[in-house]
Structures are given as C-alpha cells and as structure tokens.
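pasting for the record
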Amino acid sequence: MYSIESFKKKVNMLHIELSDKQYNQYVTYYEMVVEKNKVMNLTGITEFDEFIDKHYIDSLSIVNAVDIYQVQSAIDVGTGAGFPGIPLKIAFPHLKITLLDSLNKRINFLNEVVETLGLENVETCHGRAEDFGHRKEYREQYDLCTSRAVANLSTLSEYCVPFVKIGGQFVSYKSGNVDNELRESEKAIRILGGEIGKVCSFVLPETDFARTLVPIKKIKSTGKKYPRKAGTPSKEPLQ
C-alpha cells in the first residue's frame, strides 16, 4: 500500500478537503495509469510520489487562480491521460467535465477510468479542438477550459478560447517564466475575444517544480473563423 500522508499534507496546503473515498480514487487512478502505461505511452512519471506532485497536486493547483466552486462546467483540451480533468473531477464532484483528446486509445482508457472510479457527469470526446470548437454543443458552452498541453500560448488560446462562455475563462498550465510568451500572445488573445487575467506563479508544495497559471478571461464572442482548420493554429500561430 502507498503512503499517502505526504499527498494529504500537500492537498491541505492547497486548502482542499478530501474524503478517504476520494483519496482511494486517486490511488486507483494512479494504478490504472501505471498499468496501462506498460502498453501505451501515457506518462513518463510512474513513481508514486513524483506522480502525486507532477500530476495530482499540479492539476489541483488551479485553485490558486480560480474559484473552482463558482465553476459548473469545464472542458479539458488535449487531456492525454486525463490531466488535469480527472484529478479536478475527483476533488470537485460538482463539476460537469468534458475530456477532449485526439487519440482514441486514450479516450478508451479514460472511459475505463470514469467507470472504475464511478465518476458521473464526465463526457469523453475523441477529436481535435479545431473541429470541436466549431460544434454548437461545445462552442462557448463552458465556464472553464483547461489545458496542460505543450504549445505556445497563441496556439493554445486558439484551441481553447472558443469553448469558453463569455464571462468564463481558459487557464493554461505553464512552467517557468512566461513573460515573453505573454507579450507575443497578447494580440492573438484579443482577436479571440479574451484578455489575460492575473498570472499566478508558484512552486508546487515541497518541490522545486515551478508552475505558472495563465488565466484568460473571455470578454466577447470568438469570431466564427476561429479556430482555423486542423493544423493551422500550430503551424501559423496568430500574431
């Protein structure tokens, strides 16, 4: 059995209260990821304590930038093995969450996780953000969009901002210093109907892992032509 005392301590440092059932769900999820990782590339991090820090605590650290209790609906774009969407759903069961990923094998795995953990109000979607961002049942439907995907902020914003309702926000998980990226993406974010909120930089509890959360508030509707067709946002980021 894993020692979860350190995990509990770090969760408490984020001012989140979890039940034993929720901690057990996190352990089961960890075991499922590590097992599936043997046949499918989900994560390079399989050691329990490091996994806790870099996947769970990192995912939950969004509480430093967002009042999660004011959020009803969220979409996690490029969710991969389910981060940050599933850790957020476990901790905050009130959230109605959509997990979007372009690889069907990952979505099949996430369906197993959702069923095994008994999570409700989770929708999994196989597809690209550039396509789903134009579908009326997803476009401008969410209070919150999250992404830990590795891409520049202009590209990520084009993928993510179209999903967000006016008054909602997209939060990008970044590591280290983002000053240049913020400057370079300011115009793109404005074109997409967003504005950069209060950037939140910190070190994950009891680690040396620097994290920056960039909240982008949706202040007006995104123009119909965005996101552009598949592949374009990454090849030709908005300037």
